[in-house]
Amino acid sequence: MSLELRAPHNERLSLELPVETAQLGTPFNGSICAADGRTFFIEHNIIRLAENRQSFDTLAQRSNHISITAQLYEALWRRHSISLLSGESFSLNEEKKLLLDWTGPISGETILDVGCSTAFYARNLQGYEPETQTVALDLSFPMLQKAREKAVTEKIDLFLIQANAQQIPFFNDTFDIVAMGGTLNEVSNTIQVLTEIRRVLRSNGRFFIMYLLKSTQWLGRVAQESSSLAGLHFWTYKESKKLFERAGFTVDRIETKGIVAFALLS
Ligand SMILES: C[S@@+](CC[C@H](N)C(=O)[O-])C[C@H]1O[C@@H](n2cnc3c(N)ncnc32)[C@H](O)[C@@H]1O
User: Fold this and answer.
1) Can you give the pLDDT at residue 70?
2) Which residues line ligand 1 (CB under 6 A)?
3) Residue 233 alpha carbon to ligand 1 centre in Å
4) What's the CA-to-centroid distance between 35 and ligand 1, angstroms?
5) Whose CA is nearest to atom 27 of ligand 1?
6) Residue with the nearest Cα to atom 7 of ligand 1?
7) Buried-most residue among 4, 29, 44, 115 (CB within 10 A)?
8) What span, in angstroms and rounded, lies between the C-alpha atoms of 155 and 151?
């Protein structure tokens, strides 16, 4: 099935994305055109709705645009990150199980992974229920290239979109499931990103989010204070709950492992 996008330069215009762009095993290059003639390019199946140069405004975001970060991200960092940050052993398989148990994707549903990096959430959701239509969105082109490489190896089809989560290129009520792992701590305008997610989520949709809380240990606080200079933000449990409610979500559940929080919002 083709995918309808909302044009980033004019929210009344749509862009029709051919289904072939999601068939990652077959390289696809081309372009799509809005009704006013504005053209967007598709490079190796990645739909480029954001320019690389407009893409980052903090140090933390800048690091994601370096190819070596994308190459090493999942193997060196993501695999161990939850255990390292929480101080408890928690494997990627356990995180995958939590994601699938809480979101429960079913055939015919539409799924969005926001700030996907190598699309760990998108690949697992689509891999679990192949009759879904899954979109992985990130500002970083190198991360999306790595996501593509991994999805090809796993024979998983996804739409890969380079776009800004502050202006999600979809119409209202498009997705049944939205997932976001670790990205909220990094985005510049937290409330705008959450409001955009609520806008594109259907009224009976599920939003799975993993994020980092403020540390209560002095060493952790020192580390977080310095990372806030690079543009990262952290919240207490209460502050995060308030933030989600301010964006219009109902908090169904939150579980914490040290400073790592998993929440299901609707
Ligand atoms: C911590 S990583 C995400 C990890 C990934 N979700 C996972 O579970 O492995 C943050 C990602 O968010 C992306 N990002 C940051 N700000 C963004 C924005 N405004 N729009 C889209 N992506 C953004 C970065 O490029 C980076 O790949």
Assistant:
1) 83
2) 61, 64, 78, 115-117, 120-121, 138-140, 143, 164-166, 181-183, 186-187
3) 14
4) 30
5) 117
6) 181
7) 115
8) 6
pLDDT of residue 15: 97
3-state SS class at 239: helix
Contacts of 143 (CB under 8 A, 6+ apart): 64, 69, 70, 73, 116, 117, 118
Alpha carbons 118 and 54: distance in angstroms, whole number? 20
Tell the residue nearest (CA) to atom 2 of ligand 1: 183
**Looking at residue 39, what DSSP letter applies?**
E
Helices (H) and strands (E) in the chain, counts: 9, 12
- Is pLDDT of 54 > 60? no
Ligand 1 center–CA 64 separation, angstroms: 8
DSSP string, 48-112: E-S-STTS--SHHHHHTTSHHHHHHIIIIIIHHHHHHHHSS---HHHHHHHHHHHH---TT-EEE
Sheet strand arrangement including 251-257: 30-33, 39-43, 46-48, 159-162, 133-138, 110-114, 175-181, 201-212, 260-265, 251-257
pLDDT of res. 71:
86
